Amino acid sequence: MSADLTRIPVAGPAPYDVLVGRGLLGDLPPLLGAATHVALIHPAALRATAEAVRDDLVAQGLDAHALEVPDGEDAKTLQVAGFCWDVLGQVGFTRSDAIVGIGGGATTDLAGWVAAAWLRGVRVVHIPTTLAGMVDAAVGGKTGINTDTGKNLVGAFHPPAGVICDLNTLETLPPNDYLAGLAEVVKCGFIADPAILDLIEADPVRAGRPGNGVERELIERSVRIKAAVVSVDLTEQGVREILNYGHTLGHAIERAERYRWRHGAAISIGLVYAAALGRMLGRLDDATADRHRSILQSLGLPTSYRPDAFGALLETMRVDKKARGNRLRFIVLDGLAKPVGVDDPDPALLAAAYSEVC
Ligand SMILES: NC(=O)c1ccc[n+]([C@@H]2O[C@H](COP(=O)([O-])OP(=O)(O)OC[C@H]3O[C@@H](n4cnc5c(N)ncnc54)[C@H](O)[C@@H]3O)[C@@H](O)[C@H]2O)c1
Ligand SMILES: O=C(O)C(=O)C[C@@H](O)[C@H](O)[C@H](O)COP(=O)(O)O
Ligand SMILES: [Zn+2]
C-alpha cells in the first residue's frame, strides 16, 4: 500500500474507495478480487502504462491482456464495445474476472459499459489518467456509449470496485485536455464547493498547468463532492442530477461538433448558458452568473457558440436524459452552491439565455 495516499470512500449499494496520490499503480492487484483473467482497456496514448501494468499482473500469475481501443470519443461506440466483448469471449472471461479502464473519461465510460454488460456485470476498476477522469468520469458508476442521436444514450449504472487516481499519469496529458477537465472542477465549485472557485481565481494561470500547487487539493475537493452525491443517489433519482449542471446544452454541442470537441470545452459553454438561464429565471444574482464566464475565460475555456445553432441544439436537448416526455429539464442555481432542477422552462427564456452564449 502506497504511503502518499488519500482515500475517499464512496458509499451506496457497492461501496468502494477513490485513491488519490502518486505512484499508486501497484495498488491495483488487491482490487481485482478473485480474477484470474484481466482485460486492461486503454487508448494508444496509455499503451506504455497499460503494458507495464499487464507485465506486473502477469508476473503475479494473472492472465492479463491489454486491449487497445480508439482514442477519446471514438471509443464510445457499439462497434468498439463489441470488439471488447469478442476479446473477452475468446479469452474465456467468467463472472469472477475483471476489467480495468486505463485512460480518460471516454475510456473509463467504455470500459465500465463493457463490464456492466458482459455476463450481466463483472468487476471493473478504473485508473483515470485525465483530470476529467479523476474528478468525475471514473467515480460514480455512470458508464456508457454514444449513439447517432446523442451522448451517452446507452449505458448502465455499474460502480467500480475501486478508482486509482495516480497524479503521475497527468504529466503526459496535453495542456488542452487538462484545461477541459477543469470545466468539471469549476462545475463542482459552483454547485457545491465555492472554495474551489477561490483557489482557481487566486491564480488561474497556475491552476491551468498540470502539476500546479493546488492540483491535488482541487482534485480531492472535486472527488469529495462527487463521492458525497453518488453515495446517496447512485441511479440519479434525485440529487445526482446536480452533477449534470451545464450538461444539457453541453452534450448538445458535443453532438453538433460530432464529438470532435473535448467534453469539458462543451460543458464550459453549457455552464455559462445554465448560469444565464438561472439569472433569467430570477434565481441567480448577476455577480454569480457573471462569475461563470469570467472564471472559465480566465482558464482559456470557450464560453460562446454559433448564433445560428440554437434550433438544432434545442432538438438534441429533447433527448437529454433529464427530459420527461416533451418537458425539458435543466439544473440551475438558486444562488452559489444551491443547485435546483427546473422543469419545462419557458422556450422564450431558453432562447434568450442562448443569446448570452453567442
Ligand atoms: N461517467 C461519468 O460520470 C462522466 C463524467 C464526466 C465525463 N464523462 C465522459 O468522459 C469523457 C471526457 O473525458 P476526458 O476529458 O478524460 O476525455 P478523453 O477520455 O477523450 O481523454 C482526452 C484525451 O487525452 C488522452 N489521454 C488520456 N490520458 C492521457 C495521459 N495521461 N497522457 C496523455 N494523453 C492522455 C486520451 O487518449 C484523449 O486523447 C466524455 O466522453 C464524457 O462524456 C463521463
Ligand atoms: O455523474 C453524473 O451524474 C454526471 O452527470 C457527471 C457528468 O459530468 C458526466 O458528464 C456524465 O457522464 C453525464 O451524464 P449523462 O447522464 O447526462 O449522460
Ligand atoms: Zn461531464
UniProtKB/TrEMBL annotation:
Pathway: Metabolic intermediate biosynthesis; chorismate biosynthesis; chorismate from D-erythrose 4-phosphate and phosphoenolpyruvate: step 2/7
Enzyme class: lyase
Lineage top rank: taxon: Bacteria
Residues involved in Zn(2+) binding: E184, H247, H263
Domain 3-dehydroquinate synthase C-terminal: 181-323
Keywords: Amino-acid biosynthesis, Aromatic amino acid biosynthesis, Cobalt, Cytoplasm, Lyase, Metal-binding, NAD, Nucleotide-binding, Zinc
Compartments, as annotated in UniProt: Cytoplasm
Gene Ontology MF terms: 3-dehydroquinate synthase activity
Residue intervals of the 3-dehydroquinate synthase N-terminal domain: 67-178
Catalytic reactions of this protein: 7-phospho-2-dehydro-3-deoxy-D-arabino-heptonate = 3-dehydroquinate + phosphate
Cofactor: Co(2+); Zn(2+); NAD(+)
HAMAP family xref list: DHQ_synthase
Name of the protein this chain belongs to: 3-dehydroquinate synthase
Organism of derivation: Jatrophihabitans cynanchi
Top-level taxonomy: Bacteria, Bacillati, Actinomycetota, Actinomycetes, Jatrophihabitantales
